């Protein structure tokens, strides 16, 4: 059994310059917890694999393709491969989301 204390995982460098902690990395899948402070956002990007997001805390805006929606804690969002997407925190509170990529990508994410 492996138990990870996510709070102790160090945020890694990323092109979005936000708190992004890779909490799971196997040959089959990858999971990252992204924390956006008020006013922070991710740059629009494309991932080479399907992704699902699970909102852990707060309220945020998700844009996938031409769609935009406000989501809150306990919402699950599906994002198909190769569709531009991003997250925005327009609230006054912290926003945290779990990002799961399955299968683990073999190509890099592309910023737009």
Low-confidence stretches: none
Taking Cα atoms only, what radius of gyration do you get, to the nearest Å?
13 Å
Helix share of residues? under 10%
Q: For the record, give the distance between the C-alpha atoms at the N and C termini, rounded to a whole number.
A: 39 Å
How many beta-strand elements? 10
Q: Describe the biggest sheet?
A: 5 strands, antiparallel
Helices and strands: which structural class? mainly beta
Shape: globular
**Which series of helices and strands comes N to C?**
EEEEEEEEEE
The number of helical elements comes to: 0
Strand percentage, roughly? Answer: over 45%
Main sheet: strand order: 1-2-9-4-7
Arithmetic mean pLDDT: 96
Write the topology of this structure:
Layout: E1 19-25, E2 30-36, E3 45-46, E4 51-57, E5 59-64, E6 67-72, E7 76-79, E8 85-88, E9 95-101, E10 110-111
Antiparallel strand pairs: 1-2, 2-9, 3-10, 4-7, 4-9, 5-6, 5-8
Provide a descriptive summary of the structure in words.
The protein has no helices and 10 strands. It has 112 residues and is an all-beta fold. Strands 1-2-9-4-7 form a 5-stranded antiparallel sheet, with no helix packed on it. A 3-stranded antiparallel sheet has the order 6-5-8, with no helix packed on it. The chain has a two-stranded antiparallel sheet with strand order 3-10. A hairpin with a 4-residue loop joins strand 1 and strand 2 (30-36). The model has no long low-confidence stretch (mean pLDDT 96).
